[in-house]
Write a structure and sequence with these properties.
Layout lengths: L15 E3 L24 H16 L6 E8 L10 E6 L5 E7 L2 E10 L10
Antiparallel strand pairs: 1-3, 2-5, 3-4, 4-5
Length: 122
């Protein structure tokens, strides 16, 4: 019997990783009224799905990260497949790009949040 190796989702500095993509269904509740006759997936929905995929790929919750920056470059239509590519640097900052149909649609950074004054993290 052949044993399959478990995928290693930990990133080394400068290593790019493409996660599984996602598709926002045409009946997603966030699309109602955004925009009638020419629906566009809201940026917050794209970010929510991208951050969930990155967290799953890294096998770590990203609640301790904050959104450092984000640029929306091109609209995404409902049903259009989106791919998430991300890379971590030595400080733990995660740079990500969302692509659809061969074009970049968004990019940004997730940075580790500084602990609140007096807060101790394990």
């Amino acid at each position: 019997m052949m044993r399959m190796a478990r995928p290693d989702h930990r990133l080394k500095q400068g290593e790019a990783r493409t996660t599984a993509g996602f598709v926002i269904a045409p009946d997603h509740p966030a699309l109602a009224g955004h925009f009638p006759g020419h629906p566009v997936v809201p940026g917050v929905v794209l970010l929510d799905h991208a951050i969930a995929l990155i967290g799953a790929a890294l096998a770590q919750p990203l609640e301790i990260f904050q959104l450092g920056s984000v640029k929306f470059l091109s609209p995404v239509s409902p049903g259009e497949p989106v791919t998430v590519t991300h890379e971590a640097d030595a400080r733990g900052t995660i740079r990500f790009t969302l692509s659809a149909s061969g074009r970049d649609v968004a990019s940004g950074t997730l940075t580790p949040a500084a602990p609140a004054s007096g807060e101790i993290r394990a």
